[in-house]
Design brief:
homotetramer, alpha+beta, Alpha-Beta Plaits, 2 domains, 12-stranded mixed sheet, 7 helices, 18 strands, 25% helix, 34% strand
Chain lengths: 302, 302, 302, 302
């Protein structure tokens, strides 16, 4: 299979179950809501060492937020509900509550709930108060800028982590320009995030390592500098490979993002044969139960 | 003492000893170096829950970096060398090594060293190699985008955390516009960072809390909504207070930043009496050994 | 008729015939293509004093441009083909040819043509050369950065200027936040531009003036400060009005943009009753032959 | 003479007398003041075809503007006072008065004055009013967004156009990255502007042309593609040249900008020998009376 002359490998991306929440951060204007959202999604590339994976999902107009102010939706993924429970109050406490004029709300419905204001309220040192509107409870925590309003809990749902595709090309400039365009396209979609810096991974990994203490290590089969030394998956002309990793709420959301991302990347350079191929990361099907076959995804209508 | 009509409280900022490192992140262009730097300084507001405090110190031209590529200097602070040792490999591994085309170097000299490539090299799964130029040792770790070059160690030095001042005003718009201008001015200085999102804290804290499990809580004396309920430090007209917290390598660097920040904020609104006063956060001198007296700092020449 | 509680006036926007061209500006990267495009669309608000009306239509990927480089499409409108012929070489010569690494191409097909390289080639002082690919002819003009490639001519077509709607609200903040969101939405559409700075007009005009030498003057019926002095069209609560003016290639393109812009603005503030109404500018039907009735446009599906 | 290994030609930049004004544009926030300033400086590269040369000089805090609002200073240059008189009302009328919430003030003192509100007031159709504070007179023109406040006149002074230097390098990427850094540095200075798009000219010209109707044409001696065909000033390795053109209020201001720009460009790439030389554009001393000798400028302290 080819798209605009770029070969699509006959393989699949292997993804695994995660848990996710979406929070809504609002502020007096988009500038300050962005500062908080940009902080909370920092150091959140991969659960392996960050605890969570997080990114801005989208910008919200006042009419799309609970308190009618400008905002951002942020999605946060972890391997278990317990881990999310542990990380969320630290992240929201440090990155959102500290940012002037912000408020924080649940952005997803569910039966099980994660603590939000429920944990953070204690910062009010007894001066916090709560209000209930219908089924939703909010905390008003007095702070220097005025008041930090925070919903009692946020929802949590089943999700999928590790949807991905690899882009192979002749040099880093070719590969990265095409992938930046792909990431911009994916950012327009709901229910998915790309948690790595700039949405693109330059050091994709395999499971396992010769050093026992490391759970993951460089994926040598895709390292251009090791072509002569290892059993390489790269043809001679490939000098740079990057990976776009997608976390999402559903299989459908991830498929849509993979399809849009791959077609955008393949078409970016037009007639120029700048890209050499598209592949995907998997571990022989033993790590994750979600398998996204490239050819199948790309054959489906949008 | 007054600056442009804004009253300066006769008080001091109380700061405490920290340890700091500076790393240099480079990439094929400033865009990608920024993506890595922006990730590493995320969720790094306060050591209390983030482990470290970090921010971009400044943009670097190719001629200012070890490998002659565009870059950014990032400063990272923690309470102990041990904590920095623990956090640094996670931060650099997740936020820098994953970002396409980056490299990472020490940005400060010292006898004691923190591990950088020394820890991260193992990701190379045995394919990493090292080179030594003079007294500096570098690791070349094969990755998908090509090669991640990382210096063996980075320096570490004594530093100071918690330099600060408070800006009191009639509303959040008045206070934040003036403080954004102050933060922009401070960002031009070397050897200091403002680690909170956007450089400004909206929820300044005091030491201690009625709930024993919390080490810090809202500073009620500066909360506008509590003026009637507590022993408030705020006059009737003050409806919003924010804090600018500055970490720096030396007392001089922090003094210079405080002086520049306070004068910029006080002069921002010109004739308009938008700000009500400048103060500073301290804990009666019992927390930190560094005391920055506002009137003294503001009387010194730059 | 109401949208999200905002009253839609039972009136129409009056627009008039124009002529338009689209040019494609490319460069070594989007940064430089943008510098040229941003220059050419400056001082191009209204034909009355700028000669043309121009704006960036959209960002182009390499695969969407004639030379496979990043680019921007810019649309330029004037009252006559003759005026476009006069203005175009000055605009492209000053704003595009001067910008490092750019090239310039026709972005629209037509039988009648406007000179592009046909005029600019003389800058080459005899060193220019031309090449023909199929039916298209290009000039290669030697310049300091290397070579400026410019298509011989660009197409020109019938178009419409002055599609518009007015947004009435309680203050400038309410009105402008909603309209910025509307402009962002319109910017996603093809075949239309909003030529005023930021896409929004703060000083909408009527035809005629008591001073004979001026063809247009302030539209006093919509000036909030004149409510008591003139026959005002504004209710008591309206304190700010702005106009979004849309030029487009077809009636359909303008209708689509008006519909998207109006619904985006009306929904921006959600439950908050920040906007007071939507109206449109017309001159009793005597200026332009294109009449866009708000209620009709808003009743049609997209 | 060499700076960081880059050869400085023993030549001079030839500049000529101009007239200049500075206007202050304010608005409800920096976003809208910027939209107006960005429009007025568009299509203002060179007086040859734009009538004026203009650019943003600097961002202004509320305390630096006449009405205590955020703003920008814009400088506008032309060959004669008469030409400025003719162009200014069109530029301010189309780019500033149309932009929501703006006001416009004189930013320079002088005995001779240029009309500002004096011309634009007629847009008020008789509803305009004027107020005098001290020696300054202001017009209040009712418009849809509220009121457009405009000072009666602005000052005008002697100035200099055409300060310049050339940067020669091995390719466009090398040359442009260094020059962008130089332009960023020059932008921090007062009393100077770089009016071309992005501050850099890719198609520097000489006086005269074989086609009589053109006053200027490509400077073939500096065109890399003509090295074999003409009496070239370029050595074999030079494949790209760009020019930074500086207009300023005084010789001192232009010298300072040239010195800062040249040293920033030369140091940008550090050890990498990416740049091949620095030169300057002159016409044998017959065009302009201001001669800026590179070696002299670079030998002076800052």
């Amino acid at each position: 299979m080819k798209i605009n002359g770029v070969k699509i490998d006959s393989t699949f991306a292997e993804a695994f179950p995660m848990k996710a929440t979406r929070i809504i951060i609002t502020a007096m204007n988009h500038y300050w809501a962005y500062r908080a959202a940009n902080s909370i999604r920092g150091f959140a590339s991969s659960v392996i060492a960050c605890g969570i994976e997080a990114d801005i999902e989208r910008k919200l107009k006042p009419s799309e937020t609970p308190d009618g102010r400008p905002g951002f939706a942020v999605m946060i993924f972890a391997l278990t509900v317990k881990e999310l429970e542990k990380q969320l109050p630290h992240r929201v406490g440090q990155s959102v509550m500290t940012t002037p004029t912000t408020a924080c709300f649940s952005g997803i419905e569910s039966t099980v709930k994660l603590p939000l204001g429920k944990s953070l309220r204690y910062f009010g040192d007894g001066y916090q108060t709560s209000k209930t509107f219908g089924e939703r409870r909010y905390w008003r925590i007095p702070v220097m800028h005025g008041e930090f309003v925070c919903e009692h809990t946020t929802g949590v749902c089943d999700a999928i982590g590790g949807g991905n595709f690899l882009v192979l090309g002749k040099n880093a400039h070719h590969v990265l320009s095409a992938c930046q365009s792909a990431v911009e396209a994916i950012e327009q979609l709901n229910d998915v995030i790309t948690s790595f810096p700039g949405g693109i991974v330059g050091s994709g990994s395999k499971v396992g390592c010769k050093y026992r203490f490391l759970p993951a290590s460089t994926n040598e089969a895709y390292c251009p500098t090791l072509k002569g030394l290892v059993e390489s998956r790269l043809s001679g002309e490939v000098e740079s490979v990057v990976e776009i990793v997608i976390d999402g709420l559903t299989e459908e959301a991830i498929k849509k993002a993979m399809r849009l991302g791959i077609t955008t990347a393949c078409n970016y350079w037009g007639e120029t044969r700048a890209l050499c191929g598209i592949s995907a990361g998997n571990y022989g099907g033993q790590l994750g139960k979600h398998h996204f076959f490239l050819e199948e995804i790309l054959s489906q209508p949008d």
